[in-house]
Every structure is written in structure tokens, then in C-alpha cells.
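The instructor's notes for this session suggest beginning with a concrete chain rather than abstract definitions. Hand out the sequence below and ask the class to guess, before any prediction is shown, which regions might be ordered.
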Amino acid sequence: MKKLLSIFAVFALVFTLAACGGEETAEDNTIKIGANIYSFDDNFMNGVVRPELERYVGTFTGVEIEIVDSKGDQAILNDQVDVFISKGVDVLAINLVNPASAKAIIDKAKAADIPLILFNKENTEAGAMDSYDKVWYVGTDSAEAGIIQGEMMVADWLANPEWDLNSDGVLDYVLLKGEPGHPDAEARTREAVKAFVDAGITVNELALQASPTWNTADANNTMQTWLSGSFADQIELVICNNDGMAFGAFNAMDSADHFIPVYGVDALAEALTMIGADELNGTVLNDGVNQARATIDLAIMAALGATDPTGAWELDALTGTKAVRVAYVAVTKENYTDFQ
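After discussion, reveal the predicted structure:
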């Protein structure tokens, strides 16, 4: 488990900063964080991460945050960063729209000499993180969610031979992928299916939908199409790269009265309820609460001038001081109440 940076330690630093300001007012010494969510339509980012960013900032004295909606548009995000810089924020906390466009954001922060914390969506541009000494990343190991989900599904497939509808020993699945090119979507897709292959189970992909969104409505529409298609009676498993899409898949199955095992990722509150009601077979906790807390901890420390703002948060051994990764956890019928 990642250790939470002591509120008291950060408060002491904020107090010291204010004390050094001489006759400046407390308001002048307020740490201002300019932040965004790539899209308020995202169930996880807007329903878990954003509320915790706001709540957790409220536990500190002398820290403020402004969070804007980038509406899934990188150009809007670029403009929002320019506005934050013009407002004189002390630190940026940015949830990238396009992971391949991180360098543009990093360059803006570097030109303004403002620390930058990227969170949840990881940069995919080689060398971008090394181009600025005041940029860090908070997120997860994208592959880990797929590995955990895959292991969960393999165990259930082996424990429930009746899921193999035609008893041919082959898993016939459909997969709701999410945003094309998103590191999480790509890694979860790859690793979830690989778990079956590694277990010696033959797989057959009946359909894969790379939606431009991760949302419930799009997944519902896609699943409805699959259930009305020629291979509807062959589907033995529905793999979803987030809970929002799992909700959509279940809604479509419920409408068609055609139920198939379905798995998600995120462990949203509704997903936990659905697991308890046997409507969702499993999910993977994407710990948005601790991602939010780590983002704020790093932002405050960076704003205070720390050259290593990671504090008590553990560093990724592969990327050294540039990344903090929060672990995923498998959530099943056996342990779902632990997360409610």
C-alpha cells in the first residue's frame, strides 16, 4: 500500500512558507492549484477522482484548487493551461486528454517555470517527462488492471464449465475496449486476454469495440447490436475495460433478457452493488481516492519548491522519481463489501 503523506508535515511547510512572507497576507501565500478532468462525462474521473481532489484539498489550510472540464478536447485543455498560467497558479495538476500530446503541456509549464503533476493518463511521448525537471506522474501500472481482471476471469471460467456454451473448450468473448490509444485501454485489453492464453485456454474474439468514450450509453448501444447479431448465442463472456461500459453491457442484456458473465474495472459504487446482486461478476479497484490524494500531495510539495515532492508515496522502480503508481485490487463476490 502506498503511504499517505502526513497532512501535518505539509501543513507545517505551508505555515513556514506563510511565516517567511513577512507582511504578506495569508491570502497571498495561498497555494493555488490549477487542475482539470479530461471529461466530466467519465464516470470514474468525475465520480471518484474529482470529488476526492476537492475534498482532500479542503483538509489543508492555505491550499485552493480550481478544476475545469476539458470536454475530451486537447485543444480546450491547451487553452485551459494557458489560462491557469495567466492566473498565476502555483502548480498544475493535469489529466491529459491525449497521452501523445503531453509534451505541449510540459513545454507550457516549463516556459512558465510552474511545477506540473500529470495524473491518471500517462504520457506516451518518449523523452517528454525528461524534458522538464519539475514534472511528475501519478497513476497506475496500466497492465496491472488487465492482469488482475484476466486472472479473475480465468479462475471463474475454470470453476464454471457451464459457461462454455458449446462445450468446445474455446472461450468466445466480446470486448468493450474504451478510448483507442489510451494506455489503460490498450494494456487492459492485451493483458486480460493474455491471461487466458497463458492459462492454456483457447480464445476466440467475436467482436471488439474501441469506443471513443468509456461511457455507459455507447456500451449499451454496442451490446444491443451484438445481442441482435448473428453471433449473439455464441457469446460466453463480456470483457469491459471499465465499469461504466460494464453497466451499459448489463443494461443491454437486461433489456434482451439474455445474460452473460460480465467483468469491469474501477470498482465504482454501483459496480459493487451489482456484484452483490449477481449482475456483475467482478471488477478491479482502480484506486481513484489515493490517486487524487497523491496528486494533491505532490502538487503541494512541488509548489513549495521540493525537488522530490513524492514524500512518503512509493516511487516506480522503473521510472525513478518521475512516477507514483497506486496499486489495483481484485473485487469479487467474496470481498466486495470491503470496498463499499
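Then share the key points. Confidence is low (pLDDT under 50) at residues 1-27. The chain is about 40% helix and 20% strand.
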